[in-house]
């Protein structure tokens, strides 16, 4: 704790920094936090635990949202029951901890310390991953796993290690030509990583360039020159130099990458409006909770799911990965009461895994979706 406080107060004079570190350590000793297993139980957590198990058939996010609303609507007398029970449990935990020997307490403290350090290291790794710092270049094997396990929908009943083990068997059985194809793709992927750093452009923007027609690609690369708040003379020269150096390389990479491409047009997400809303007061955006009815169909019109048969709308949070990518993208900017038809390519649906038994692998899907209600925190 002292070291962390010294880091956060690095620009403060040494005397004050030393005093703050000592006072922090003293206050930490007075109100010692109990290790995991002896932590504080809250009345709300007791309420959730008591009512959560009876709703196993509902979506966890929906259950938690409904139970939160119920908790807020409880009267003070009912809440006090949970408050008293939580106080009793906390007192028992503290008494049990105090009755332990110093050796046992020290072991628990050491375990808690190791757990905190592991969580901190994980947070650092995630932040570095966001900034793309210290990452090794992706290999053909890593790209293969990304396409099969990340973009597809793996069996949620399996552990991650089991999925990787199965994919490793498939990878080893692939012919050399297939592996070389993945390695060719990865050269383009790693080159985009270089371009992102070299040009100060968004990596995910460049990652999508290989599937763009040339005129779209050109407009994407030229856009930073002629727009944006940083369109000063210095930045113009920098972007121009970047493009003059990068465009020839990028074109070569795209030509190489498309050696084994077929001539058919790449499938895209298609959005059609079946019925417009009479009075659109609010439009959906990322983070909204949507209540929808939907009918899911295969490309030949075979229906595989219908929420109306269950007499219950489907509820999810838009843009948070709770549904397939085609939904997260296709239901943006939608009004309450509006009806849309989405034609979703397989890479934005269930990918090469499919969803057994009704949805085969690499299946393009169609959905008729009606937006019933938008729930937005703070605005509604």
TrEMBL record:
Record's keyword terms, sorted: Coiled coil, DNA-binding, Isomerase, Nucleus, Rotamase
CDD domains documented for this protein: HMG-box_SF
Coiled-coil region list: 98-125
Database matches in InterPro entries: FKBP2/11, HMG_box_dom, HMG_box_dom_sf, PPIase_dom_sf, PPIase_FKBP_dom
UniProt domain HMG box: residue ranges: 42-101
Stored Pfam families: FKBP_C, HMG_box
Name recorded for this polypeptide: peptidylprolyl isomerase
Originating species: Onchocerca ochengi
Lineage: Eukaryota, Metazoa, Ecdysozoa, Nematoda, Chromadorea
């Amino acid at each position: 704790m002292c070291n962390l406080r010294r880091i956060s107060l690095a620009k403060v004079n040494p005397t004050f920094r030393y005093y703050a570190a000592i006072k922090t350590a003293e206050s930490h000793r007075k109100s010692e936090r109990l290790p995991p297993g002896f932590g504080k139980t809250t009345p709300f957590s007791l309420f959730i635990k008591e009512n959560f198990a009876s709703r196993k058939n509902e979506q966890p996010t929906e259950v938690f949202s409904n139970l939160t609303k119920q908790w807020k609507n409880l009267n003070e007398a009912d809440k006090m029951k949970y408050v008293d029970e939580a106080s009793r449990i906390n007192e028992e935990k503290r008494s049990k901890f105090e009755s332990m020997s110093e050796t046992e307490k020290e072991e628990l403290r050491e375990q808690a310390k190791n757990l905190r350090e592991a969580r901190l290291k994980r947070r650092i790794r995630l932040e570095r991953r966001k900034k793309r710092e210290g990452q090794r270049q992706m290999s053909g094997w890593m790209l293969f796993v990304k396409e099969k396990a990340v973009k597809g929908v793996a069996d949620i009943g399996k552990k991650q290690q089991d999925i990787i083990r199965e994919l490793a068997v498939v990878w080893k059985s692939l012919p050399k030509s297939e592996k070389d194809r993945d390695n060719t793709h990865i050269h383009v992927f790693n080159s985009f990583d270089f371009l992102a750093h070299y040009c100060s452009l968004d990596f995910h923007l460049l990652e999508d360039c290989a599937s763009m027609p040339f005129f779209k690609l050109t407009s994407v690369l030229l856009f930073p020159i002629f727009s944006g708040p940083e369109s000063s003379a210095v930045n113009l020269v920098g972007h121009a130099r970047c493009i003059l150096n990068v465009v020839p390389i990028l074109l070569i990479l795209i030509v190489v990458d498309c050696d084994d491409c077929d001539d058919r047009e790449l499938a895209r997400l298609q959005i059609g409006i079946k019925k417009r809303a009479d009075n659109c007061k609010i439009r959906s955006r990322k983070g909204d909770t949507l209540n929808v009815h939907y009918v899911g169909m295969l490309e030949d019109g075979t229906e595989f799911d219908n929420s109306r048969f269950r007499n219950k709308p489907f509820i999810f949070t838009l843009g948070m990965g709770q549904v397939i990518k085609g939904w997260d993208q296709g239901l943006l900017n939608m009004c309450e009461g509006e009806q849309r038809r989405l034609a979703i390519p397989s890479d934005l649906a269930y990918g090469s895994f499919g969803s057994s038994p009704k949805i085969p692998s690499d299946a393009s899907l169609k959905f008729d979706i009606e937006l019933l209600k938008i729930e937005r925190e703070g605005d509604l």
